[in-house]
Amino acid sequence: MVKLIIDTDPGIDDAMAIFYAAAAPDIELLGLTSIFGNVTTDIATRNALRLLEAAGVDAPVAAGAQVPLQLPPFKPSAHVHGAEGFGDIPAATPLRTALDETAAEFLCRMAREHKGELVVCPIGPLTNIAHAIQADPEFVKNVARIVLMGGSYQEGGNITDYAEANIYHDPHAAEVVFGSGAQIEMVGLDVTHQILCTPEDFTALAAAAPKLGGMLQDMSHFYLKFYASVGKLDGCSLHDPAAVIACSHPELFDGPEVAITVTCTGNTQGETVAADDERGTTKVYTSVEASKVKQMFLDRICSLS
Ligand code: BDR
Ligand code: CA
């Protein structure tokens, strides 16, 4: 059983990842932490609570940082995920509220309480993880693995020619994380661009699981339209679900151990490249059993009521 915290900016593919985690019998979801990116941090917190409520999961949510470590705040990616984060689905107020602890405090405490067992899966910008690393020198040793959706090794970027969006939105935080010595697995565009979900897949999810599969199908229209607008007509990438699946099924992914550094300035800002210093290596996934990962995602969502 994987003890998991997802750090998230929900976000359409974040919703897919969280519903997957809620349905997976081999994942114990200990909580969510929220971060800006696809939406503001306040909307991310609200959306995280709303997703857990919809899935009937009682896990806590801790609100994260409002701004990047050094860069000025970015505008949320409303053209990709919609103004409220879930495409055309209107905003709704959840019943529960977030913890009094910040995301970084929650992450540090959970890492202490589940020393050597906690897996952290960031699927947004890495600001909260950097704050946790800076706040508690033991955090990196207490966490078993950090399995992050972000970066690109040989695939080029998606928000610029060089950078993947989660890394681009806080490259200084990403540099703190990759340089921390933690056990890191990078689920970047090299693998997520191989795992595509089509309109027909979403129709099947809605038929099998009308409530949650139906909610994902409602969101998917907006997301698929964005993909089509950038010439990607064969479906949307399962970015964030791929990272959550790598937490419990790393055997479906493979790639080299590389010391990764992040470019923090200039026109390649946010690029993840090989470092020439002595930092610890990251397992950079470049190959994936894409059809198995996709089927695992579809099967789990179909199992939801
Ligand atoms: C990542 O950026 C966000 O838009 C998605 O939710 C995903 O985490 C993909 O580059
Ligand atoms: Ca995300």
Task: Summarize the topology.
Elements (H helix, E strand, L loop, with lengths): L1 E7 L3 H12 L3 E8 L6 H15 L5 E2 L15 H4 L21 H11 L4 E5 L4 H9 L3 H4 L2 E5 L15 H4 L2 H8 L5 E4 L1 H4 L3 E2 L1 H10 L3 H18 L6 E2 L1 H10 L4 E2 L2 E2 L1 E3 L9 E3 L7 E3 L2 E2 L1 H13 L3
Parallel strand pairs: 1-2, 1-4, 2-3, 4-5, 5-6, 6-13
Antiparallel strand pairs: 7-8, 9-14, 10-13, 11-12
Helix pairs in contact: 1-2, 1-11, 1-12, 4-5, 5-8, 10-11
Calcium ion (CA) binds next to loops.
Name the descriptors.
single chain, binds calcium ion, alpha/beta, 14 strands, 16% strand, 40% helix, eight-stranded mixed sheet, two-stranded antiparallel ribbon, globular, 305 residues, binds beta-D-ribofuranose
Distance between the termini: 22 Å
- SSE pattern, N- to C-terminal: EHEHEHHEHHEHHEHEHHEHEEEEEEH
Strand proportion, as a percent range, falls in 15-25%
**Largest sheet report:** 8 strands, mixed
> What's the Cα radius of gyration?
17 Å
How are the strands ordered across the major sheet? Answer: 3-2-1-4-5-6-13-10
Structure summary:
This protein has 305 residues and is of the alpha/beta class.
Descriptive account of the structure:
By secondary structure, the protein is α/β, with parallel strands linked by helices. It contains 13 helices and 14 strands. The protein has an eight-stranded mixed beta sheet with strand order 3-2-1-4-5-6-13-10, with helices on both faces. A two-stranded antiparallel sheet has the order 7-8. Strands 9-14 form a two-stranded antiparallel sheet. β2 (27-34), α2 (41-55) and β3 (61-62) form a beta-alpha-beta unit. The two termini are 22 Å apart. Residues 11, 13-14, 38, 77, 80, 123-124, 149, 158, 164-166, 239-240 line the site of beta-D-ribofuranose.
